Amino acid sequence: MSTFVTHDYHFHSTLSACCHDECMRPETVLAHAAEHGFEEICLTDHLWDPDVPGASSWYRPQGIRHVRSALPLPRHERVRFFFGCETEYCGGGKLGLSRAHFDEFDFVVIPTTHMHMRGFVRPEAVVTEAQMVELYVDRLEELVRLDLPWNKVGIAHLTCNLLFKEGDVGAILRQLDEARLLRVFDRLARTGAGIELNASSLAGWQADPDTWLRPYRLAKRAGCRFYSASDAHVLENLGQIAAVIPGVVAALALTERDRYRIPCD
Ligand SMILES: [Zn+2]
Ligand SMILES: [Zn+2]
Fold it and tell me: Are the C-beta atoms of 217 and 173 separated by less than 8 Å?
């Protein structure tokens, strides 16, 4: 089995405010993983560190103590279960997890595309397609300049509909500046960060492969490594890895050498 269908580094439990499926508990997900031949999974509930000022009202209840209430994670002899989180990057250096608290997690997923959070992630003044194209690359350029333990960071869903819900996401993806993106990915490759292949966000990639795979093709050219993610909020979506990822991996011609792995000590 391809290395890209035997791990899932991004899914949510009911500790995330947007996850309402009672089946999404660590025990159930682990049992599903063991049954379907997974070797590594990572729980990544939404998180805002109380030590970082400026949480939105949605994020505020999802602090470190809250997400750590999932610990200790259940164990299985064939499946390694990592403990991670999905935090937020809001621009201006404002990251929802303080540098000092990275140690509390095996893996930290950082999205730059939650642009539906207007007035928090996306400035109210950004309304046009052209502005969004700029903001997309600006955010990545800012983010990669931060001093972080990058080898335990994954860049979440670079292509997703949340990016521009009211408009044409494909148009944004096609207009992103290639040279600037290559510089961002070059830096991510050198720091050892992972690039996420998000099965939920990529579910419709085959309708327009050149558009939806564009950022990943550039990331691969720069030498980045990739990991798979279901981003499941309901149990049945854990199956998105098997349904979506093999086609994406084949289209990108990824091999074992291109696989990002969560560091373990
Ligand atoms: Zn997300
Ligand atoms: Zn998520």
Answer: no
For residue 64, count other CB atoms closer than 10 A to its CB. Answer: 18
* Global confidence as pTM: 0.97
pLDDT value of residue 138: 98
- Burial label for 100, CB within 10 Å (0-12, 13-18, 19+), is exposed
110 sits in which H/E element = strand 107-110
| Residue 156 CA to ligand 2 centre (angstroms) | 8
Q: Please report, for the chain, the start and end positions of each structural domain, with discontinuous segments joined by +.
A: 3-258
**Cα(179) to centroid(ligand 2), Å:** 28
Reply yes or no: is the peptide bond before residue 72 cis, omega within 30 of 0. yes
CA distance 165 to 248: 23
What pairing do the DSSP bridges indicate for beta strands 153-155 and 194-198?
A: parallel
For ligand 1, a single-atom ion, which residues have Cβ within 5 Å? 111
pLDDT for 40-83, tens place per residue? 999 999 999 999 999 999 999 999 999 999 999 999 999 999 99
**Residue among 251, 262, 253 at smallest CA distance from 229:** 262
Q: State in Å: Cα 157 to ligand 2 middle.
A: 9
Q: Looking at residues 102-109, what average pLDDT do you find?
A: 98
3-258 topology per CATH: TIM Barrel (3.20.20)
For ligand 2, the distance from its centroid to the CA atom of residue 243, given in whole angstroms, is 18
Residue 265 has pLDDT above 90, yes or no: no
> Percentage of the chain surpassing pLDDT 90?
99
Q: Which residues contact 28 (CB under 8 A, 6 or more apart)?
A: 235
**If you measure from the C-alpha of residue 120 to the centroid of ligand 1, how many angstroms do you get, rounded to a whole number?**
14
What's residue 189's pLDDT? 98
